[in-house]
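TICKET: design request
STATUS: open
ATTACHED STRUCTURE:
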């Protein structure tokens, strides 16, 4: 990738936002990996953060998904929104939200939590029109607009 022509790389990632600057960052990061890390992707947060274009979100994704290392919780726009709606964080800064989540969750759950919350935010808890009635968390969500439904049986209440 470090030697890939800029225009070809731009074409490959053209469906993403800011594809020109991302293509440049990919080439520079690939060159940095070759020069500073012998072509290997680092396995630590401090080393990953040295790479151009890599912040905590990307570093957490790489460590969690590529290496199975729970370094933190991935905080994107969905995680930010749901953390606030669920009352898990009042912060707006992603680093502070991540700290609130890592203080709340067991470390063994950090990788899955990020993925699950992102999925839930995309599929159910939309920014503009959340599906509160179809949400499995509406009973515990302080932001839920779903009407309260009485349980049909004590067994259903116990499962919730």
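STATUS: resolved
RESOLUTION: sequence designed for all positions
ATTACHED SEQUENCE:
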């Amino acid at each position: 990738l470090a030697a890939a022509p800029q225009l070809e790389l731009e074409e490959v990632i053209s469906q993403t936002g800011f594809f020109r600057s991302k293509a440049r960052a990919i080439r520079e990061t690939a060159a940095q990996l070759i020069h500073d890390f012998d072509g290997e992707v680092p396995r630590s947060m401090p080393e990953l953060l040295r790479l151009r274009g890599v912040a905590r979100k990307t570093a957490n994704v790489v460590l969690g998904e590529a290496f199975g290392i729970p370094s933190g919780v991935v905080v994107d726009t969905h995680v930010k929104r749901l953390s606030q709606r669920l009352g898990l964080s009042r912060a707006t800064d992603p680093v502070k939200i991540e700290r609130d989540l890592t203080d709340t969750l067991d470390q063994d759950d950090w990788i899955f939590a990020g993925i699950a919350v992102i999925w839930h935010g995309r599929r159910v808890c939309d920014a503009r029109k959340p599906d509160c009635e179809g949400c499995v968390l509406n009973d515990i969500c302080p932001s839920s607009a779903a009407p309260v439904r009485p349980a049909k049986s004590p067994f259903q209440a116990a499962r919730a």
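CLOSING REMARK: The mean pLDDT is 93. Residues 70-145 form a domain with the Endonuclease Iii, domain 2 fold (CATH 1.10.1670.10).
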